[in-house]
Amino acid sequence: MSTDLDVADVLALLRAASAADGVRPLSEEAELRLQHGGPPGGGDLVVRDGEDVAGYARYDVGADGGVEAELVVHPSHRRRGHGSTLLDRLLELAGPRSLSLWAHGDLPGSAELLAPRGFTRSRVLLQMRRDLAGVDPDPHPALPEGAHVEAFRPGRDETAWLRVNARAFAHHPEQGSWTAEDLRLREQEPWFDPDGFLLAWRGDPDHGGELLGSHWTKVHPAGDVADEPVGEIYVLGIDPDAQGMSLGRALTDLGLAHLRRCGLTEVLLYVEEDNTAAVRLYESRGFRRFAVDVSWRR
């Protein structure tokens, strides 16, 4: 067990696991913290088999004070106890605190590792998908009076967006706690495209305008989540004071149209399974359940 980290070796492990399992083994947040570091209290663990990086885990302190982690074992080094080694160390680090681990794809090996140690399923995150063939590439949805939609402008819109994001996701354990640094890191990612980051304003944003909500889309490159590029409803958030204006539907239609104009044929999103109203809404808009991520907790 080691905390000595060669990021390139770990990224190679992640690519191998993704190819073998058909699902990305870590969340975007964990990958960003692997490459750029994270807040105090977190860290990285590596287990080696000879010179090979056989397994990796990322852990951080959650909003409730417990430890949240993700771990992955290289496909060529599975069934040799490396997952148990990483888990034992995570349990040691957690001590009396709760420990939660995300199992992306809900693969059988996760239950085999975690259930005997007293972990139970605590959260289920659905990935839903739909094709873009039937999407209007030039919609003209009705907007609230005095509102207009324009693309995100880096250097101007960060503060307003972070404020609305925190308000829109006040009860979401990850999304609602984003900081300026979280946003900055994503603006530096190769996939970031301000033209696909749509903001609904009332008034002039350069002269005291009010941000009502936004739809941030993302394009996954070929080989990331499918053989072809796939769009994503990355973050769709409406300020609580702007609820009930059908703004979410309007921004959804505009974002999907943008992704279709990019030449994409499919779009995905993530939603909590127990958010039944949202799941029903997305199903009514043509989305289907595609994959499941599970958070196990002890």
Question: How would you briefly describe this protein structure?
Answer:
With 298 residues, the protein is α+β, with helices and mostly antiparallel strands. 29% of the residues lie in helices and 30% in strands. It has helices at residues 7-21, 28-36, 82-94, 108-114, 158-168, 180-187, 247-261, 276-284, and strands at 43-49, 52-61, 67-73, 99-104, 120-131, 147-151, 197-202, 210-220, 230-238, 266-272, 288-297.
Number of strands: 11
Estimate the global geometry from the Cα principal axes. Answer: globular
* Rg, alpha carbons: 20 Å
CATH-defined fold name of the largest domain = Aminopeptidase
CATH architecture assignment of the largest domain: 3-Layer(aba) Sandwich
- Fraction of residues in H or I helices: 25-40%
> Biggest β-sheet: count, sense, barrel?
11 strands, mixed
The CATH homologous superfamily name of the largest domain equals: Gcn5-related N-acetyltransferase (GNAT)
Summed over residues and divided by their number, the pLDDT gives a mean of 94
The level 1 CATH classification of the largest domain is: Alpha Beta
Q: How far is the first residue's CA from the last residue's CA?
A: 22 Å
Number of domains: 2
Taking pLDDT < 50 over at least 5 consecutive residues as the criterion, the unreliable ranges are none
Order of H and E elements: HHEEEHEHEEHHEEEHEHE
Category by helix and strand content: alpha+beta
Helix segment tally = 8
Order of strands side by side in the largest beta sheet?
Answer: 1-2-3-4-11-5-10-9-8-7-6
Strand content: 25-35%
